[in-house]
Amino acid sequence: RKLESVDEIFNDYRSDSEIGKINNAAKGSFQVSDDLRAAFQISQNLAQLTDHHFDITIGPMRNLWKQAAKEKRYPSKEEIIQAKNKVGSEAYKLVGHALHTQRDNIHFDFGGMIKGWVIDELVKELAGTDVKAALFQVGGETFCFGKSSRGVGHRLGIPNPLNPKEFYAVVTDPGTGLSA
Questions:
Q1: What one-character-per-residue DSSP string does 107-166 give?
Q2: For residue 19, how far is the Cα from the chain centroid?
Q3: For residues 101 and 81, what is the distance between their CA atoms, to the nearest angstrom?
């Protein structure tokens, strides 16, 4: 159920998700769910830790580059400037469960952190249970602990960026958990 709720809340490609409704709305105030509030708080911490290089308002820039790639071209300088002008954490403020946006059609994109966050949440749910092993894989984010069904530590392969059919490295969980 947790993974379904993540899609219902954070999928910015869906106009009916919680974040999709906010992204497609005029500027204003919105009551946000507990999970969305937590994600905003985590992303604000990540922004501070990275001197604001991590920014969940990056959607316009992502969309520009995706469209340009589809058209097999680089975006023009003007397109980049236009998209960049739509990005920035000054465009919103979170107070409790109230999100206040300062621009129409702001485009929040939690893709840079939400998969890791949901895996962390799933692992927390397992803490204190008698589950001895698990392997989670959510859109490229992987976490495992315990022994595999073959009775050995889980092995994670890291693809070679120059040749995705080869592994750059293979790491084996020593029994304490492993994330990639």
A1: ----TTTHHHHHHHHHHHHHTTSS---EEEEETTEEEEESB-TTSSB-EEEEEETTEEEE
A2: 12
A3: 21
Q: Quick check: 87 and 55 in contact, CB under 8 A?
A: yes
**Spacing of C-alpha 37 from chain mean position:** 14
Give the residue among 103, 113, 98, 106 at the shortest CA–CA distance from 45: 113
Name every residue whose Cβ is closer than 8 Å to that of residue 129 and which is 6 or more positions away in sequence: none
- With 90 as the cut, is the pLDDT of residue 96 above it? yes
Residue pair 116/10 in contact (Cβ under 8 Å)? The answer is no
Task: Provide φ and ψ at 89, rounded to 5°.
Answer: -70, -10
The predicted model gives 20-40 an average pLDDT of 95
Cα(10)–Cα(20) distance, integer angstroms = 8
Statement: residue 1 has pLDDT above 70: no
Residue 24 has pLDDT above 70, yes or no: yes
Sign of CA dihedral 45, 46, 50, 52: negative
Mean pLDDT in the chain? Answer: 89
